[in-house]
Amino acid sequence: MCGIVAYFGRKSAQPILIEGLKRLEYRGYDSAGLALLHNGAFEVFKTSGRIANLEEMLPAVTPDAGLGIGHTRWATHGLPNTINAHPHVDYTGKIVLVHNGIIENYATLKKWLLKEGCTFKSETDTEVAANLIGYFYQKNRTRDGRNCPSDCNRFEWAVQQALNEIYGTYGMAILCLDCPDTLIGIKKGSPLILGVGKNEFIIASDAAAIIEHTSQAVYLSDGEMVTICGDSFSTKTIANEKVDAELKEIEISLDQIELEGFTHYMQKEIAEQPASLETCLNGRIDLKNGRVVLGGIQSRLRELARTKRIILTACGTAWHAGLVGEFLFEQLARIPAEVEYASEFRYRNPILEEGTIVIAISQSGETADTLAAVEQAKERGAIVLGAVNVVGSTIARMTDAGVYLRVGPEIGVASTKAFTAQVAVLSMLAIELGRRRHLSNEVAENLLKELVAIPGKIKRILDQSDVIREIAAANIDKDNWLFLGRGFNYPVALEGALKLKEISYIHAEGLPAAEMKHGPIALITDGMPAVFVATRCAQYDKIIGNIEEVRARGGRTIVVATEGDDAIGPYADHIVYVPDTVDYFQPMLTAVPLQIMAYHAAVLRGHDVDKPRNLAKSVTVE
Ligand code: M6R
Asked: Would the CB of 315 count as within 6 Å of ligand 1?
């Protein structure tokens, strides 16, 4: 939710931190700050607003200040103003830190620290962590009066003592005034990666801030800390047990995180879909034998095919993909399936019979609610699979097995290419489970042939961007939209509405088209845009009836139809055509014009498409 970057090396930290923060800005952008440890003092700069505001207030670069921490914030506790911006210096002035996550028991800790004489400047939970570390560092003893052992690093020890008191989630980077050659990073429930370069180290909440400097990284696990001291680093648990660090190759490249001529990441990521989907499918479909080969879960497919129930769990766009997955597993594999909002599932005391499979779907692999749902499912003995994009992310590592989306970094806050790949992964899995249960090889083969044709079909939709822009422009003054679909296009209606809401701030509602007559039809007024996903599918005739109901009440219909369907003309004020495909795979096509529509609407309304207000890319807090 927030972005953390910290640098320790022989170069000047300031420009590296700023560059890193810009790469992480999609994680949160309501305030930003950095702290350098230089000449025995902390130099702290922070401000509300974007990284550009921070950059403006910075002094000239100090070449020999090689140690610093930076932060871009998405506010949870306290307004997004300068005082609440990170870094936070503790009451003793010895500790400074940046934090991503939430300290759940901060109020209790704050009360105690105030009683102990600590002072606070901000309203944040983070300052409690800074003060707690400062408290243990200064007192040099635990709450029950035990001193820091003489063979321990006191800074590290104080961090561990503080963490023993904290409940919640955190990724943190911490400096101590007395230790000008030490940088500590800790992780629990929020991502933290250590980049290991030549004579330099970068700690960041995302590989995007590291890749420019090194491709070697250590992905910290929950409950681990890294201490960089001089030219070396060590990893241990917060409980002080040694951990062997494993260096891994970062799997993203610099060009994948550049705009490469596009104005926005969302625009780039929509356009990438033919290629990203091809990469997602590549090597996983054996057309000759009508089989699917999913490396990450291959050895478990037999067991999976025997399951009696599948639960898909996710949030936001990933949940919409999960809803498509529910239909796919039921229809293709004939396995009872249901999709659950991770945020609800985690608290519902769910009943998971033996052999239930839970599939967690997540682009980032860090969404706090999805992570908690995975934990919950594991505790109850379910087999938990992941359909995750970010390699090495927490969900990817926590699940028993999984399938990566392989679409490269998705930076735009509005999820696009991850959605089509999530549906593709679930389609592959449903076909393979179906083939192992009851589908004939011939049917499976035909479905797979159709699936590999989808990327090429998306290209044809992208070519209509100008037509879609005109439709968005013609309706841009409308503040309420409906999105309606049936069958496999019902989740697409939900997704279309979410896309429009989150980046253009237009109120939109997505519904199964037939539900409209049970209430929402009362909303239809003269000229209200109603987007119908009305492609040739099993419910085609039914949805035509729903379109008529809206038109009869003065609604303006924007119809996503199948290429060659001339009969739909009289029902539509505007039409966008998509290529034909089987019902199962239609969401991968019909979602695309709605992504493009939302993109143009947001641009036409003058919004920052990649950084919509109040949002952040990955929601690592509850
Ligand atoms: O990283 P995840 O896929 O777990 O994220 C889930 C949602 O937060 C995400 O899809 C969100 O709804 C997007 N902003 C939608 O565009």
From this structure: yes
